[in-house]
């Protein structure tokens, strides 16, 4: 089963997404940048949903660290920020895409599937 890491400081959102994806993915969650990095290193997920605004290390900084650790990891940024510059910065740092809040769960499913497929295709055969 594919592994997913969801990083957000809103516990209700983590609960919603965990319930939504469980059964199709092994879901791990984190509420801070430090916890996200620790769980990433320990579990090596196949896809990461990462909130831009999390306590401690910003989501953009966490993105940079994840990409340094594993450049092939698909990271999808999740943000309530509608400024195009934030999205542009995330994409420049290697994010696969970004999803604005509030989001549609069907779209989240689609993004997860695209990310896992990209991850599969980028691994050496």
Q: Can you offer a commentary on this structure?
A:
The structure is a single chain. This protein is an alpha/beta fold and 125 residues long. The chain has one domain (2-122): Response regulator (Rossmann fold). It is built from five helices and five strands; from the N terminus they run E-H-E-H-E-H-E-H-E-H. The protein has a five-stranded parallel beta sheet with strand order 2-1-3-4-5, sandwiched between helices. Helix 2 (33-43) runs parallel beside helix 3. The longest helix is centred in the last third of the chain and has 18 residues, at 105-122. The radius of gyration is 13 Å and the shape is globular.
Level-1 CATH class name: Alpha Beta
Low-confidence segments:
none
Radius of gyration using CA atoms only:
13 Å
Helical content (DSSP H or I, runs of 4+): 40-55%
Write the CATH fold name: Rossmann fold
List the helices and strands in order.
EHEHEHEHEH
Spatial arrangement of strands, main beta sheet: 2-1-3-4-5
Helix count, DSSP H or I runs of 4 or more residues = 5
What is the CATH architecture annotation? 3-Layer(aba) Sandwich
**Major pleated sheet:** 5 strands, parallel
